[in-house]
């Protein structure tokens, strides 16, 4: 196969959580452009994402689910299979951040953040891995990590704990599942202009401090995730296992 053909996702089905906005939307569109049929999972409508994918003739279906608990896990898989008959790619993108001083951080906020960012990611990955094994053709799992998989951060202890866990979970699952031709890898976005960082970008001091530390000299965008997610979703990365790649404009290199 010629190298650029290895990036082609024609015939594949990709499921992206949190596909209604931000990085999830950017990645869903990219996977669609690469030829995959896309299932977007979100707690509210993915109308905008659907429109962007249908504009270039791609196929998109949404599954409405709240990922605060494991309750919808099996239904997400079932609805994806009902729509397109198989699954090949799972992007665990949905996540939330709560900015509260560690000294005041409450248990409910902790549980919410860790459940969506960490616990449900594991059980959704497990459900998909079982299906990949059943299909017998391997599959891809791509977890969205963070700079706070490597660093401590400020006022976000639950987020840092959960995103650091994602780095380890990506390795742990890759170890166990590489033998089934399942690749589990991560993408660690740097500081990207989405809802997740709206609060930071609105704080002039913090915003300036962050921007001054990014070698690329700008905040990232959902488009910046697109090349890496297509590569990790494709046959071009079949021997990449358990690694988390920073897409951060050089932040970690500082
Ligand atoms: P975002 O615009 O806030 O998107 C987060 C997505 O997760 C949204 O689709 C959101 O849905 C969804 N989500 C949150 N809680 C959910 C729940 N209980 N059930 C279902 N969906 C839920 O921010 P983003 O930057 O695109 O974030 C995407 C991922 O990248 C997250 O895992 C985030 O931690 C990670 N990340 C972002 C940055 C950054 O700088 N932006 C950096 C590193 C990592 P709603 O729209 O309904 O809230």
Briefly, what is this?
The protein has 254 residues and is of the alpha/beta class. It contains eight helices and seven strands.
Which descriptors apply to this entry?
globular; 2-deoxy-D-gluconate 3-dehydrogenase activity; alpha/beta; single chain; EC 1.1.1.127; seven-stranded parallel beta sheet; 254 residues; NAD binding; 15% strand; 2-dehydro-3-deoxy-D-gluconate 5-dehydrogenase; Rossmann fold; binds NADP nicotinamide-adenine-dinucleotide phosphate
What would you say this structure looks like, in words?
The protein is α/β, with parallel strands linked by helices and 254 residues long. The protein has one domain (3-247): Rossmann fold (3-Layer(aba) Sandwich). Helices cover 41% and strands 15% of the residues. It contains eight helices and seven strands. It has helices at residues 22-33, 47-55, 73-84, 107-135, 157-177, 198-202, 204-211, 226-233; strands at residues 13-17, 37-42, 60-64, 89-92, 139-144, 182-189, 244-247. Strands 3-2-1-4-5-6-7 form a seven-stranded parallel sheet, with helices on both faces. The longest helix has 29 residues, at 107-135. It is globular, with a radius of gyration of 17 Å. It starts with 12 loop residues before the first strand and ends in a 7-residue tail after the last strand. The mean pLDDT is 98. NADP nicotinamide-adenine-dinucleotide phosphate (NAP) is lined by residues 18, 20-24, 42-44, 66-68, 93-97, 116, 144, 146, 189, 191-192, 194-197. One of its GO terms (molecular function) is 2-deoxy-D-gluconate 3-dehydrogenase activity. InterPro entries: 2-deoxy-D-gluc_3_DH, NAD(P)-bd_dom_sf, Sc_DH/Rdtase_CS, SDR_fam. Belongs to the short-chain dehydrogenases/reductases (SDR) family. It catalyses: 2-dehydro-3-deoxy-D-gluconate + NAD(+) = 3-deoxy-D-glycero-2,5-hexodiulosonate + NADH + H(+). Keywords: NAD, Oxidoreductase.
């Amino acid at each position: 196969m010629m190298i650029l053909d290895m990036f082609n996702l024609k015939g594949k089905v990709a499921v992206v959580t949190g596909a209604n906005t931000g990085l999830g939307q950017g990645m869903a569109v990219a996977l669609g452009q690469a030829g995959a049929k896309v299932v977007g999972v979100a707690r509210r409508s993915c109308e905008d994402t659907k429109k962007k994918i249908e504009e270039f003739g791609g196929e998109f279906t949404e599954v409405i689910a709240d990922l605060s608990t494991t309750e919808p896990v099996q239904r997400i898989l079932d609805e994806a299979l009902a729509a397109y008959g198989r699954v090949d790619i799972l992007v665990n993108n949905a996540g939330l951040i709560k900015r509260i001083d560690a000294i005041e951080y409450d248990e409910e906020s902790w549980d919410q953040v860790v459940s969506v960012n960490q616990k449900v990611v594991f059980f959704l990955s497990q459900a998909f891995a079982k299906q990949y094994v059943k299909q017998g053709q391997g599959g891809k799992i791509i977890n969205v990590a963070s700079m706070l998989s490597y660093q401590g951060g400020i006022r976000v202890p639950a987020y840092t704990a959960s995103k650091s866990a994602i780095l380890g979970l990506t390795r742990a699952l890759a170890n166990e599942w590489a033998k089934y031709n399942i690749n589990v890898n991560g993408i660690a976005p740097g500081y990207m202009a989405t809802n997740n960082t709206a609060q930071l970008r609105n704080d002039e001091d913090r915003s300036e401090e962050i921007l001054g530390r990014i070698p690329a000299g700008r905040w990232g965008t959902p488009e910046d995730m697109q090349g890496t997610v297509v590569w990790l979703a494709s046959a071009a990365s079949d021997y990449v296992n358990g690694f988390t790649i920073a897409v951060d404009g050089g932040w970690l290199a500082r």
